[in-house]
Amino acid sequence: MPNYFENPKSKLDLFRQKMYIIIYGVNTPAGKAFDIGLLIAILLSVFTIMAETVEGIDHTYHKELIVLEWIFTIIFTLEYALRIFVSKKPFRYIFSFYGIIDFLSILPMFLSIFITGSHILSSLRILRLLRLFRIFRLIEFVEESSRLKVALMASRAKILVFLYTVLIIAVLIGTLMYYIEGPENGFTSIPRSVFYTIVTLTTVGYGDMVPTTALGQFLSMILMVTGYGIIAVPTGIVGVEVAKEVGKRISQQQQDKDKDKEHNRLNGIVCSLCNQEGHRDDAQYCYNCGHHLNT
Amino acid sequence: MPNYFENPKSKLDLFRQKMYIIIYGVNTPAGKAFDIGLLIAILLSVFTIMAETVEGIDHTYHKELIVLEWIFTIIFTLEYALRIFVSKKPFRYIFSFYGIIDFLSILPMFLSIFITGSHILSSLRILRLLRLFRIFRLIEFVEESSRLKVALMASRAKILVFLYTVLIIAVLIGTLMYYIEGPENGFTSIPRSVFYTIVTLTTVGYGDMVPTTALGQFLSMILMVTGYGIIAVPTGIVGVEVAKEVGKRISQQQQDKDKDKEHNRLNGIVCSLCNQEGHRDDAQYCYNCGHHLNT
Amino acid sequence: MPNYFENPKSKLDLFRQKMYIIIYGVNTPAGKAFDIGLLIAILLSVFTIMAETVEGIDHTYHKELIVLEWIFTIIFTLEYALRIFVSKKPFRYIFSFYGIIDFLSILPMFLSIFITGSHILSSLRILRLLRLFRIFRLIEFVEESSRLKVALMASRAKILVFLYTVLIIAVLIGTLMYYIEGPENGFTSIPRSVFYTIVTLTTVGYGDMVPTTALGQFLSMILMVTGYGIIAVPTGIVGVEVAKEVGKRISQQQQDKDKDKEHNRLNGIVCSLCNQEGHRDDAQYCYNCGHHLNT
Amino acid sequence: MPNYFENPKSKLDLFRQKMYIIIYGVNTPAGKAFDIGLLIAILLSVFTIMAETVEGIDHTYHKELIVLEWIFTIIFTLEYALRIFVSKKPFRYIFSFYGIIDFLSILPMFLSIFITGSHILSSLRILRLLRLFRIFRLIEFVEESSRLKVALMASRAKILVFLYTVLIIAVLIGTLMYYIEGPENGFTSIPRSVFYTIVTLTTVGYGDMVPTTALGQFLSMILMVTGYGIIAVPTGIVGVEVAKEVGKRISQQQQDKDKDKEHNRLNGIVCSLCNQEGHRDDAQYCYNCGHHLNT
Fold first, then answer.
1. Mean pLDDT, residues C138-164 taken together
2. What are φ and ψ of residue B155, in 5° steps?
3. Angstroms from D283 CA to nearest CA on chain A
4. Is residue D143 domain-resident?
């Protein structure tokens, strides 16, 4: 911690201290209000950018939207500067995951002065919402997402095997479909056939490419049923993690109870001769030295 | 309870009492018959409104359908009036969830006298079916749905995290798709691209918008596999709740059994001769020295 | 059982007895061969009928296909007659579920003499396969399907609540979509809008009807995410049943073990004086009468 | 093992020994590098073949792509020869699953000299990736996939019942849809209608065929809800296996603990003075009478 924090010398240091609690803290009313305000500002700015891409809206309100976008960008720029200013370790913040996102969410608007259209990328600032999980109910949310992270890490191998299998199926069936259907039926290349295979396997089914030969339809039907069945695999992966957790909890309860039993069954008497503990509840003599226990 | 109910004075009070049991009660045959009649009336009236929107049917039977609709509306209006009349606390009913639905299900028809076409909204009276869960087998149904409610409340945080994540993915990928594909390929605006992203992520896949660039297809494939995998999350959420409940049940059984063991098996009597403990609850003599136990 | 079976008098009775074992039995090699032959015949006959509806194939092989269909129909008719002939209770077979299916699978072909085209319905004889589960590995299959039946019956209420909810959502959102999009955007009637709603909710997504208004797209997105989430409900229903079964099994194991413990902890000694059992393993005296136990 | 391996006589034998460890082994750095190099070569060669089918790319880089393909094929041919050469039992490798895949992945390119276009099938060499699971983290992966195999084998009967049911539904509803919709609505034959049924049941929903009659739409809606519900079956199958495993683990833990209790806690010694049992394993004196225990 920089010294201004523990030992504020000037008015500025006090201001930084106060702002730090508001911007990075959650538990104070001001901190919560700041977070909610930020959430609304982010959502509104994203909606503004979205609206600008809709021709009908843009046509009538082009100027207003541009002004709004600049207002939001200036707000976020000020906030970014403030975050750096009050941060205890500015560089750590700047190069952190959220620091980079904060920077990238204001960059496109300034870039748009030189490169037309680039400000549309501002809507990527939706990622800033990731930090605002804490607005709702901090602990529960963070717990849930960290539990999810643990579960995902634990089933890393399973997920990789799953993706690997999907990749092999996609290339394999994609190649076969390209061979069976051919460019004359819309399967113009293997990459497009792989696209078709993924679209079918995941049961998305756009319908922009559809097999027309009997063999192609037969293979597609097998693919669909496979995809329909394979969906159980991610579910199963999550299920295993869930089951493990429950298993742990049950065995934990069991252990707690077992300990209780042990405690109750053995009495707390200490042998006056040899200081031995852990005698049976009904013991008359010390099991270690044979001395009579004075119950 | 209003005094007419406990202490009916007039014939009218007796009538209200009787009707109350029929309309709000379930256990009497008349009450059950009323509910089943209502169910059929609701379904038929909804089918009538639906039929009216089908051009072929409406063309030939327009008059008959209008008459039918008015008949159903009058029936429901009478029922609504009756419900208010016999209710113990009329205002409580009128402003209750079901009271408002009952009112809204007759309103559009009367509005249609002034505003043409508004009677179509009458089909929203399908919501009245919500109350009729009880027709089948009351307790079981209510139990199931309340259990569902508990499970949903318990996993509130998880569901919010899930929706939050879906929202962020949708805006993020939607913006990227808009940038990659552009209006010339049908991705005319970010909102439409977000629509495409949701359509793909949930594996619905209408196929009205389809990526045509290589990069767009690649991103879409990742999106599909993600959506295909993310489906495990709601399943997992339900799974956790299920597992918790089972866990509770098992540990409950365990506790019950443990209590049984403690309570039934051994008493706390100490033999007055040999100080031995741990006698069976029904023991007359000490198992260790044969001395009679003074119970 | 008819007397011919227990006590065959004529050669005909012996033939019926033999045929009965072949047709209805499974364990003899002849019975198994009959079942496999029947399976192949059913599949081939279904493929024949299917082939006839494909214009290209029908054009070149029309005569051959018709001949094949008649051959299969005659085989099945003979089999049907034989089943009645050798059955112990012919009428019970005729009006049983499988008896009716057997009859319906030969009927369309004979009807086609009078009504052109009706023989296509012969492909419904695929239902006959239901009986042939037993060809593979009888016991396991029957067990699985009966377990499924039990699970389905047990979650009857849940399934009804689920379908009821889907129905209400479909009519509700269908009506709203009809109102929002209107006939000019392809939502020509409420039934068609309900069809769209079901197509979207179940994540099928044909894409023949697609919302074009902003509000319609927004409502559809909510519908998709709902449908994507609701899929957890049937999974959860099955999950609960699975979890229950596992719970039962675990508590069963527990009980078995507990019994073992009881048996081991108590010795098997019977008091020579009062015939009392159930003494502690370390008991010296009968807990009931105080008599010394001769271990 | 051939004698060259245990007892290498010549320089050639030493080379074969070294190569064997590199090609078939995993644990040495050289073996790992070989595997990673192979993985990259396979992926690159598959991408090359894919690229060749994309008209735009093929047009500009046709020569380069052909050269690249030949380079990869020569590399794989050399590798194949080396695998045979260093193998301890060459014929066992040649006719093994992976041996055949290795052969088939070089064959199409050589065939393309005689049959134009057949080299496209080279992309089937993606199957070679199956062997390369081990690159990541050998043991975990193999464990996961073998566990999957066990689970699949264990639920063989359930999967067959599921596929059997899907088949019967597909033919049944397909025939009905063909009858209801007819060729004039795009349901040109029963096989095509079966295709439609599978597309709908698995919630793929291409939308190339869509029911237009009221009855066809109604039947399709039932089909969709069925398909939406049936998805729980594969999930349930996996779920049962998961639950079984957890059940086993829990009861295993229980047994382990029970054994611990028995073994560690009490010994079987009987006090020679008072005949008391149930002494702690580490007891020196009888807890009942204080007599020294002769262990």
1. 68
2. -105, 25
3. 5
4. no
**How high is the pLDDT of residue B241?**
64
- Given B92, B112, B137, the domain boundary residue is B137
Query: A145 lies in a domain?
Result: no
Residue C3, pLDDT above cutoff 60: no
Q: Which domain holds residue C285?
A: 266-295
Give the Å distances, CA to CA, from B287 to A89, B279, B283, D274, D279: 75, 7, 8, 13, 17
Q: Are residues D64 and D93 in the same domain?
A: yes
- How far is residue C125's CA from residue C102's CA, in Å, rounded to a whole number? 7
End-to-end CA gap in chain A: 58
Residues of D in contact with A250 (CB under 8 A): 250
C11 with C113, same domain?
A: yes
Assigned domain for A147 exists: no
Same domain, yes or no: A133 and A10: yes
Whichever domain contains C94, its CATH number is 1.20.120.350
CA distance C207 to chain B (A): 4
Which helix or strand (DSSP H or E) is residue C140 part of?
helix C134-154
CATH number at residue D216: 1.10.287.70
Number of domains in chain B: 3
Spatial CA neighbour of C169 closest among B130, A80, B92, D214: B130
Asked if the Cβ–Cβ distance from D133 to A239 is below 8 Å, we say: no
Look at C285 and B282 and tell me if their CB atoms are within 8 Å: no
Interchain proximity A145–B168, CB inside 8 Å? no
Q: Is A255 on the interface with B (CB under 8 A)?
A: no
**Burial of B114 (C-beta count, 10 Å sphere; 0-12/13-18/19+):** exposed
Which chains have 3 or more CB–CB distances shorter than 8 Å to chain B? A, C, D
Of the pLDDT bands very low, low, confident and very high (cuts 50, 70, 90), residue A162 is confident
Q: What is the C-alpha to C-alpha distance for residues A43 and A123, in angstroms, rounded to an integer?
A: 9
Tell me which H or E stretch contains C43.
helix C29-53
**Residue D69: in which H helix or E strand, if any?**
helix D55-86
Distance from CA of D230 to the nearest CA of B (A): 14
- Regarding whether C133 and C64 lie in a shared domain, the answer is yes
Residue of B3, B37, B6, B7 whose CA lies nearest to B22? B37
Query: Residue C252 to residues B74, C50, C264: CA-CA distances in angstroms?
Result: 59, 51, 18
CA distance B151 to chain A (A): 16
Q: How far apart are CA B179 and CA B190, in angstroms?
A: 9
A254 phi/psi in degrees, rounded to 5? -60, -50
Distance CA B166, CA D132 (A): 34
Q: Do residues B107 and B8 share a domain?
A: yes
Chain D partners within 8 Å of A251 (Cβ):
250, 253
Instruction: Verify that C61 and C44 share a domain, yes or no.
Output: yes
Amino acid at C11: K
Q: Are residues D228 and D108 in the same domain?
A: no
Q: pLDDT (tens digit, 9 = 90+) per residue, D158-193?
A: 777 778 888 888 999 998 999 899 889 989 999 999
Candidates B123, B133, B230, B261: best to mutate against C (most CBs of C within 10 A) is B123
- Domain for residue A103, yes or no? yes
Give me the pLDDT at residue A81, please.
Answer: 92
Q: Is the CB of residue C46 less than 8 Å away from at least one CB of chain D?
A: yes
For residue D239, the chain A residues in CB contact (below 8 A) are: 235-236, 239
**Whether residue A168 sits in one domain with residue A87:** no
pTM: 0.80
| DSSP 8-state secondary structure symbol assigned to residue C118 | G
| Neighboring chain C residues of D247 at a CB cutoff of 8 Å | 246, 249-250
Percent of chain D with pLDDT strictly greater than 90: 18
Convert the pLDDT of each residue in B172-196 to its tens digit: 999 899 989 988 998 999 999 999 9
Summarised one tens digit per residue, pLDDT across range C202-243 is 999 999 999 999 999 999 999 999 888 777 777 766 666 665
Chains B & C: contacts with CB separation below 8 Å:
177
